[in-house]
Design a protein that fits this description.
Elements: H1 15-99, H2 107-113, H3 115-120, H4 129-147
């Protein structure tokens, strides 16, 4: 097969060209299959990682739901206890108001009638009115000193 003008390097059926192109296609196919297999492996590893992450998240959510339900039950119990204590306090206040209609306590009526006797006997809490007044002044001074307002 020499080079001449009539037949050329590869004659009409182009056997050598077909052979080269077939070899090239075979190598490209093998490389593409290897790349596709690697891509599938990477995607399967990512899917496995996603599945494990989803399982852990689901377990964490279940635990959080259980904790939330426990906290909700505790909150409900605390609300009921607060309502009960509030009702008791309201009943005590109402009982005191019903007992003393002027709203200032039962001692107020007696004080207006007998002021001198009030100064001699200790008021509620075991102090005379003068001691109670000085204690209130002392408490205000202590609070103003701590807060830095100074009165």
């Amino acid at each position: 097969m020499g080079l001449n003008r009539t037949h050329g390097f590869d004659a009409y059926p182009f056997i050598l060209l077909n052979l080269v192109l077939s070899c090239l296609a075979a190598m490209q196919g093998a490389i593409l299959l290897i790349a596709a297999k690697r891509s599938d492996q990477i995607s399967s590893e990512l899917a496995e990682h996603d599945f494990e992450t989803n399982c852990r998240s689901e377990e964490l959510l279940k635990q959080l739901m259980v904790n939330f339900e426990a906290l909700s039950a505790q909150h409900k119990e605390m609300q009921q206890e607060l309502a009960r204590v509030n009702a008791q306090l309201e009943a005590r206040v109402q009982m005191r108001v019903n007992r003393c209609p002027d709203g200032y306590g039962c001692d107020s009526g007696r004080r207006t009638q007998n002021r001198t006797a009030d100064h001699e006997r200790p008021a509620q809490g075991g102090m005379t009115p003068g001691q109670a007044n000085s204690t209130a002044t002392w408490s205000r001074a202590l609070v103003s000193h701590r807060t830095g307002t100074g009165q």
